[in-house]
Amino acid sequence: RRVHGGTCLLTIDLGSQPSLVLDLYRMWHCVTLVCIFSLMEVTVVHTVDDASPEIPTEPKPVLKKEPRIVGGKPASMGQFPYQVLIYIRTDQGKHLCGGTIIGEQYVLTAAHCMSGVSADKVDVLAGHINRSVAKENWILLPVSEIYVHEEYLSDKVYNDVALLKLHKRISLDGKLTASLKLRDTEVSTGVLCRVTGWGLTKKDGEVSNTLQYADVQIVDRKTCSVQHSTELYPGQICAGYSSDRRDSCKGDSGGPLVCEGYLTGVVSWGEGCARQNKPGVYANVVWYKEWIEKRTASLNTDDSPSTISGFPDNSNPDERNITKTETGTDKGNKGAVNGFTNGIALLSFVTVLTYLIY
What we know:
By secondary structure, the chain is mainly β. It contains 4 helices and 18 strands. The longest helix is centred in the C-terminal third of the chain and has 10 residues, at 285-294. Residues 299-334 are annotated as: Disordered.
């Protein structure tokens, strides 16, 4: 039969219908089929991240936000000893987040990475920068307990912080592992900060095998609220640039934003990655400092922490206030696998069909 071209509106689950267009083509036996797709809206929010073709089924908020290093540089061994790699194991595969060592027995990460996850499904890896190296090169830090903020709201992405209590205290040697001090004063607009992670190096690319870092500037909260068309609260801060230069991206969620040598933010969400006038949004560590300290017993209290040499205090935003201790070690091994985000896309499916035969 000959039918006229038309327009229809489809809601497609990208996870369950990856080959919808090909299926329609085969079903209709089109002589000529021209399809134009216009992406109208994508809801891809705060799942744990990945670049494999597997589709996770992690709980996720409903905001149009992406877990959020684009425009960065590869790190060197020992440059960021407080950074950890976190894998969450599910029936669908392994999903990737970042985290920060903040004491001999605690790691700080994002609530959206840990919501609904049990401790036995979490692997924390420290002491290396390359995900592709043999598992024996990593230090495995088993998790005994997970504390997700009691008032975490997935729909607004408020209180996006979680604590991981490690099964054993770890040795903080300042080289492979180190504890980063929490910020206790609000950071000023324009301050240069550093964000690190193994996330995407471009929006539609793959997660990085090597730890990446990028420098970003703190953006005024009111300005950031306008740019994202959503209300931010004091528990959130923003960092980025007015032009699309550098940003955190998928796979970096839960990782550290370090300003003036202190842990200042936790990678939370953003609209795309490194988009113009769309700075990344982070959980504001100073806002949660009391909450963190109430739930930890092993945070270092030394007011004069050891520092890595070679970086003047006012020049490098990441390599200060790094604490070393001499305690027992807990070594182990674990491989590295990617994770992926899923979403629902509303597509305007415009078709021009000529001599369409049923």
